[in-house]
Specification:
Helices cover about 45% and strands about 30% of the residues. It is of the alpha+beta class.
Amino acid sequence: MVKTNFEKTISSYIGRLLREHFGRGPGNVVCSVSGPYVVIQFSNFLSPMEQSLMDSDQTVYVEKTRDLMMETLTKEITAYVELNTEGRVAEFYYDWNLTERTGMMIVVLSSSDKEHPLPQIDDYKNSGALIKDIVQITSTVQKPPEEIYSIMQNPRTLLIIRKGILILLEKELIRLGFHETLRITKRNLEKRFLFEYKERFEEHLDAEVKDIFVDWDFDGDKSFILLHLKPSQKGL
């Protein structure tokens, strides 16, 4: 399947799937593919019920409900992507910004490098400075990553991949089955630190950081951070 057609197909599918399961679909869905990474971002996605809960300071219930819903949707999306590609889905990540009504999904395909060659790693201006800041944040929240690299998928999407970041306490919580509690706690804590560094990221990248998303593969001790960027005019 031609890349552009695949991106449009996935965008339409995700919009329809979210509408069917949440009662209201996103206003806009954009899919971009680079190497094995299928990145889906959407906006204006919040149901009236969810808004009511948030207005009543019950945001955590919205997060829990969405996480439970995604247990089913992840399987459906995985099957659909595999049906429309030559690769197998190896990893799946997602996150929301409920305040801004935005969200993202990252599908990582497992296939030969010939079919999906890896994009250039850390191939952009000031990548070293940005990675240093991410290591500092990670060290503050948990521990320094054993491995970290970044990929500028396109001028508006920067992916940062970290491996080996879980501390022993987190691993024990995972072993005991507290995945959901740990995910919600880490999502709120780590994103708070990431947003505190927002202006530094913007200086490094010469772009406005429109949104920040993060998710984890607890079993694989791996995490994806996505920075949604708006490049400066001189950078275009």
